[in-house]
């Protein structure tokens, strides 16, 4: 069964999709269970991905990457997440947030910070969420105050992928206090993780995507040079909103990969498990469950790829990106839930992939903006 054939994928993204599939089969899938159990950071697989030229390659050729575009990154996401979401998240996070610098940073910043990430000498991360605030981007309290030719950072960030492992992070902080311009109060900064006053530790163990690591960062009078501001002061929220339009298409791909994995597992199990003298796929109610899974998966995937094209063409990108994210990640939840039920008691055995998928699907409905927030955006940004 090949649920993720490439007929929906634009021609220029098919080769990279094939590369990602072969890499996932060789390096991700066979190691997934072990990393899920240990919860360790999959350095070896990350390095293999770097050798295969599949990590951080969304960065342009000008700065040493392959210049992969949105459909190409989506194609990789589908394949990696189908194999294992925890490892996939680590592989895709190595350049998370770097697109903001590429879009808004100076040439000097890109040379100094972006190039080493594209060349796989460094990894990075995006620090937005805080312990007390995740959804309300205009409610974040981490501050950056100007002091001479430096910015002084104070506050806390939470959930930051690679916050411990990264060489530097793109950090979102409050630089203004205008109550009439809530969204104009934030800016983006480059923060090297060896800055004095930057302390990061891993958050407690997670139930899903255990092969990815997130950090709790404490900034205590952390000083960075004034030239570490990205773009214009006060532009942080808008940079982030634009960046997330791309990211949410890719998170839709996380959902699609997970949904495909759930369907594949359920299909195979249902065709091999016997009950009442026949394999369970012979029961019509089971056939309907499998049919519904396929129906929902194909609907989500068609929407997700259509939305990718809309975002690429700047055609109501925010609306389409949120729709894709919600639909694909929720279909993944539905498929995992049904896949579990079809597995009966065996669903809860750790050695069965469906149990891992069931845990992992809980995460993409939350990250990159919880689906409730996406529904707010869909309504607000709907073309009419
Ligand atoms: C594994 C993982 C990796 C992550 N990686 C990163 C990362 O690399 N960098 C980073 O910055 N962040 C990261 N995040 C954080 C993620 O983006 C936030 O968890 C998410 O935005 C939700 O924020 P919150 O957890 O604070 O939930 P809250 O904002 O507290 O929301 C709690 C609940 O209230 C609902 N809610 C809140 N406001 C509204 C509203 N206006 N209308 C309706 N419902 C509402 C939410 O939908 C949710 O159901 C990661 C999270 C996870 C789980």
Ligand roster: flavin-adenine dinucleotide
Poorly predicted spans:
none
What is the radius of gyration? 21 Å
Profile the largest sheet.
Answer: 4 strands, mixed
CATH class of the largest domain: Mainly Alpha
- According to CATH, what is the topology of the largest domain? Butyryl-CoA Dehydrogenase, subunit A, domain 3
**What is the percent of helical residues?**
40-55%
Name the shape in a single word.
globular
- The share of residues in extended strands comes to 15-25%
Q: Provide the CATH architecture of the largest domain.
A: Up-down Bundle
Domain Acyl-CoA oxidase/dehydrogenase middle: 126-221
Protein name: Acyl-CoA dehydrogenase
Family: Belongs to the acyl-CoA dehydrogenase family.
Keywords: FAD, Flavoprotein, Oxidoreductase
């Amino acid at each position: 069964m090949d649920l993720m054939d490439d007929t929906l994928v634009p021609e220029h993204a098919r080769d990279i999709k094939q590369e990602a599939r072969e890499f996932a089969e060789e390096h991700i899938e066979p190691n997934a269970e072990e990393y899920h159990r240990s919860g360790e950071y999959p350095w070896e697989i990350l390095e293999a991905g770097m050798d295969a030229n599949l990590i951080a390659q969304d960065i342009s050729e000008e700065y040493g990457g392959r210049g992969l575009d949105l459909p190409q990154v989506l194609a990789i996401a589908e394949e990696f997440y189908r194999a294992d979401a925890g490892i996939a998240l680590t592989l895709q996070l190595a350049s998370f947030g770097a697109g903001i610098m590429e879009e808004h940073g100076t040439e000097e910043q890109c040379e100094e910070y972006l190039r080493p990430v594209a060349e796989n000498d460094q990894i990075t991360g995006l620090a937005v969420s805080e312990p007390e605030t995740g959804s309300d981007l205009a409610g974040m309290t981490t501050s950056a105050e100007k002091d001479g030719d430096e910015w002084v950072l104070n506050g806390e960030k939470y959930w930051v992928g690679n916050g411990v492992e990264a060489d530097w992070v793109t950090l979102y902080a409050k630089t203004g206090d205008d109550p009439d311009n809530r969204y104009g109060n934030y800016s983006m900064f480059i923060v090297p993780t060896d800055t004095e006053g930057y302390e990061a530790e891993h958050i407690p163990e997670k139930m899903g995507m255990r092969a990815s690591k997130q950090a709790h960062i404490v900034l205590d009078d952390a000083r960075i040079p004034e030239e570490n501001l990205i773009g214009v002061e006060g532009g942080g929220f808008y940079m982030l909103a634009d960046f997330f339009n791309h990211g949410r298409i890719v998170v839709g791909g996380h959902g699609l990969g997970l949904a495909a994995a759930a369907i594949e597992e359920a299909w195979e199990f249902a065709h091999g498990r016997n009950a009442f003298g026949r394999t369970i796929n012979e029961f019509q109610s089971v056939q309907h469950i499998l049919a519904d899974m396929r129906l929902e998966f194909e609907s989500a995937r068609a929407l997700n790829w259509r939305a990718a094209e809309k975002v690429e063409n700047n055609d109501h990108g925010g609306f389409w990106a949120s729709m894709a994210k919600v639909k694909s990640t929720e279909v993944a939840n539905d498929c995992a839930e049904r896949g579990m039920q079809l597995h009966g008691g065996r669903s809860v055995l750790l050695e069965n992939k469906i149990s891992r998928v069931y845990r992992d699907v809980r995460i993409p409905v939350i990250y990159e903006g919880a689906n409730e927030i996406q529904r707010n955006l869909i309504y607000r940004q709907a073309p009419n």
